Amino acid sequence: MFSEDLLKGKTIIITGGGTGLGKSMATRFASLGARIGIVSRSASNLEPTANQLRESGHIAEFETCDVRDPGQISTAIDRLTERLGPINVLVNNAAGNFISRTEDLSSRAFDSVLGIVLHGTVYFSLELGKRWIASSTRGVMLNIVTTYAWTGSGYVVPSAVSKAGVLALTRSLAVEWGRKGIRSVAIAPGMFPTKGAWDRLVPSGSVEETLKSRNPLNRLGEHSELSNLAAFLVSDGASYINGEVVTIDGGEWLMGAGQFNALSGMPDQFWEALREGRRKPQDKDNS
Ligand code: HXC
Ligand code: NAP
Questions:
Q1: Catalytic one among 123, 148, 155, 240?
Q2: Is the CB of 144 under 6 A from ligand 2?
Q3: Most-buried pick from 112, 188, 231, 273 (CB within 10 A)?
Q4: pLDDT at residue 246, rounded to an integer
């Protein structure tokens, strides 16, 4: 789909890059020639991924860093820059989430998700953005949001509130920092199986089947589909895309949104009867 050197010369930091979709993006970016820096809280998530990339001949480094702490972010960027060179691309992918009735949540539960998703994304973007502006670097920020960033969703309210904020950040900085040569874009994924999301959000096989049935394509997303989109968006090929959020969900959120989409479940006889009833008497005589 892409030339093998699409991302050659780029150094990309991916938060939460040791697991799930972050790992898949890191692997795809590396295969397209990028140097990779991954950060998250646990070395046990980061080290195996970095080693896997190095064993495949790629350049990859990791730093433990809790994105809720601006001091740790600054140190991680310093250390990764020393080993990888100047950073060109930031992927704000780290997240926390769980399903719960909102009335069951404590303020600390709310803060734990807001801290990772909203504050973490803001802190990382701010620290790197300031450096890019100071050095006149034409950087790219890619934020991973969700489709409920604009629809909202019950039972994941801390996440919905945070992702809505990240979407607003994306669009706001696209304008403010676009003038300084920094692009901001976002991806809104539908359901992509990962251990992190499934352990917390998909407690049983029947939930997974329900999720598939709520999708016009009747399936979940494949990691390669998302990581190819991410590679395109951070590449120079997408250099005029700024402030856009690209949905990759097989049409899932639109299926929930269109008022008459539920008619997909009606049998053929229903549509035949409707068609018959609509035809004028002379049409019926001629048929
Ligand atoms: C209710 C919960 C809870 C749960 C934790 N808390 N889990 N409340 N239901 N399932 C409460 C705790 O009781 C505590 O409040 C507070 O939250 C902080 O808990 P900690 O365990 O100390 O939090 P922390 O160690 O910071 O961990 C953060 C975390 C955890 C978000 C709770 O799940 C985590 O580390 N997640 C990272 C990975 C992740 O979530 N991946 C999924 C991303 S998927 P009290 O008051 O008791 O002290 C995703 C998909 C989006 O985003 C869209 C899909 C379509
Ligand atoms: P995941 O594997 O659980 O990814 C979350 C990552 O965030 C982990 O690597 C975790 O690593 C890191 N992280 C959590 N808290 C952190 C903190 N305080 N500081 C630094 N890193 C932290 O889940 P995923 O499904 O791949 O999710 C990746 C992204 O896709 C998220 O933004 C999520 O909202 C989004 N998304 C996923 C889906 C889906 O269906 N999977 C759908 C829509 C959107 P550590 O534990 O080592 O810190």
A1: 148
A2: yes
A3: 231
A4: 98
Q: Residue of the nearest CA to atom 20 in ligand 1?
A: 112
What value does the mean pLDDT of the chain take?
A: 96
- Residues 6+ positions from 262 with CB-CB distance below 8 Å: none
Cβ(186) – ligand 2 distance below 6 Å? no
In the residue annotation, 148 being an active-site residue is answered as: yes
Residue-wise pLDDT tens digits, 169-192? 999 999 999 999 999 999 999 999
SS3 annotation, 81-122:
HHHHCCCCEEEECCCCCCCCCHHHCCHHHHHHHHHHHHHHHH
> How far apart are the C-alpha atoms of 119 and 108, rounded to whole Å?
14
Note the ligand closest to the C-alpha atom of 166.
Answer: 2
Instruction: Answer yes or no: is the C-beta of 153 below 6 A from any ligand 1 atom.
Output: no
Which ligand 1 atom sits closest to the C-alpha of 96? 40
> Residue 101 carries which side chain, given as an amino acid letter?
R
Residue 249 near residue 215, CB atoms below 8 Å: yes
What is the per-residue pLDDT across 50-107, written as a single tens digit (0 to 9) for each?
999 999 999 999 999 999 999 999 999 999 999 999 999 999 999 999 999 999 999 9
Backbone angles phi, psi at 13, to 5 degrees: -95, 130
Mean pLDDT of 23-35: 98
Q: Which of 84, 91, 67, 77 is nearest to 17 (CA)?
A: 91
What's the CATH architecture for 11-282?
3-Layer(aba) Sandwich (3.40)
Ligand 2: atom nearest CA of 17 is 9
